[in-house]
Amino acid sequence: MNIRNSSLCFILLLICGSATALAQDRPGQVEYSDGNNLAGVISLTPGSQLKIQAGKEVRVLALERVAEMQFAAERQEMERAWRFREAGQTAKEYFGNPYPVLYLATTVTLGDGEKITGHLYTTVLYVADGDKVQKIILLAKQRGKEGETFQSVVYPKIISFGDRAAKTEAMIQLRLSGLPAKSQVVGLTRGALVRLEAKSHGADGEFEMPSPLGQEFFIAAKSAAKITVGWPKTPDEAMVTQVRNALTNSEDFFDDRRVLGAFLDTTNSEIYSLILAARKGKTTLDETRSQPWRLEIYRWKQDDDGRVMLAGHDHFFRGIGAKDEALPAVELSEKLWQLHRSGGVWTCPDQ
User: Fold this and answer.
1) Across the strands, what pairs with 138?
2) Fewest CB within 10 A of the end CB: N or C in the chain?
3) Both 184 and 139 in a single domain?
4) pTM, whole model, 2 decimals?
5) Per residue in 258-292, pLDDT tens?
């Protein structure tokens, strides 16, 4: 198979190793645009998920819930390399021969037949056949070589699976006892930290939230008095110290970042930290209420030397306070931390 090498295209690399370390193993096949096929056991990088931007919505999917993925060029352009003629000037000069660029849209079909079309975030797949493992990097923009045509560019066209995809509902039900009336409830998926806003549904304490599509999730509730977050009450002090040190060495718009808790997710060797971030310095906002704040989860990765690097973050809640106004009170809740599914409804342990 003739695979074009490019940092901006789908890349197929041959690597050696055992397939036993791969996660979410599923039998399947990759069909390329030139008609070639690659079959084997397909998996994602351990700890990762498929992430697709569909309009304004970001969906995160576990591989086990995908029946098929199709890729098609939604736009094709011939481009040429260029540079600025002079430093600080906007005039460009072009050089070299034109090369083809394909912008690909992805359609993901789920186990229940739902189709999601959008742009796939950079994703790494592995296809294992015995002891041979091949790595496929999926990107939304594919670039050919100078002098090539659009037809010359080879990319995965269809990725299908030989087993049945797990079905998933579009919404899930939450039953959270003991929350103040009119509480706002928000979830954040593990991994990609996609934000899911819940809405009141039925009796007090009952909510409906967009499905995390097979992913585990964090949950938080906001009332007029405080914010309650599902989180281990006993902090991992070693992890808290690591996160504080990492924050000290990084600059941010928020100049007051309080680490409320941190723990190591041993499954994926990642650290999650709960951060209450606020701006204490001057801002350009109205003087009456000028100081933004955010309650966020930061996700960190550790390198081989034990240093932590920020891998992603998103917020539960945010707001803007007055200059001398106290930040929201945040309570860590073991009950919400132990949220589990029972009879099709997500509930706390004592319910």
Assistant:
1) 123
2) N
3) no
4) 0.63
5) 999 999 988 778 899 999 999 988 888 877 888 99
